[in-house]
Amino acid sequence: MNSAPFAASVSVVVPAMNEAANLPHVFATLPGWVDEVVLVDGNSTDDTVAVAKALRPGLRVVTQTGRGKGNALIEGFAAATGDIIVMIDADGSTDGREIAAFVTALTEGADFAKGSRFVPGGGSDDISPTRSLGNRVLTLITNRLHGTRYTDLCYGYNAFWAHHLDALALDCDGFEIETLMNVRAARAGLVISEVPSHERSRIHGASNLHAVRDGLRVLRTILRERRRAASPQREHASVRPRAASM
């Protein structure tokens, strides 16, 4: 590990199932100053765990007890020991070299740093027109119902201070985990900073994401969280776009 540029310790949580072919690229992008990498293995049938351990001495491995990305992240967050938790994907779509921008946003005052492909400096090599339209519609609905000003709802590159885990109270299994985090962070009154991020295409293998099915799960999550808001709606969460700092 290189000399850390931040006073806070940083844990990176990586949910993975059968991603052995992608991990060499993913781990190569992680900054040397990251304090901890937690791999949550979804009971892979390939060499995911062996490859990860060979690439990253000191790696922490959590064997997932449930199913789904949401469950994997919740179990990984519970195992992380850093002051800051960063969540990235194991398919090569999220660039570990951007972690510095997320951590910088947090150390400069944000409670929750969420990646956005749709602010200046962000982009995507992977999102289809159908997924892009669905994301924009779901983002609009969330902003209307929850008083947020998000530009990108369904993106899995996020970071937050670990002491806010209780406020997020995460309790879902699937890809709707990102939406749940975004909505509950806003409901809890956390200071939210959007960080430009460029999504790459998956390197090897096929995604488990199903646009229609998972889009409906996201929509149900948005509506359920609105119904569950028992107290008067809080003041709009502060969402500040920022320039990426590498």
TrEMBL record:
Pfam family, one: Glycos_transf_2
Domain Glycosyltransferase 2-like positions: 11-156
InterPro entries: Glyco_trans_2-like (IPR001173), Glycosyltransferase_2 (IPR050256), Nucleotide-diphossugar_trans (IPR029044)
Top-level lineage group: Bacteria
Transmembrane segments: none
SUPFAM superfamilies associated with the record: Nucleotide-diphospho-sugar transferases (SSF53448)
UniProt lineage: Bacteria, Bacillati, Actinomycetota, Actinomycetes, Streptosporangiales
The name this protein goes by in its record: Glycosyltransferase family 2 protein
Biological source species: Streptosporangium algeriense
The family this protein is said to belong to: Belongs to the glycosyltransferase 2 family.
Region (Disordered): 227-246
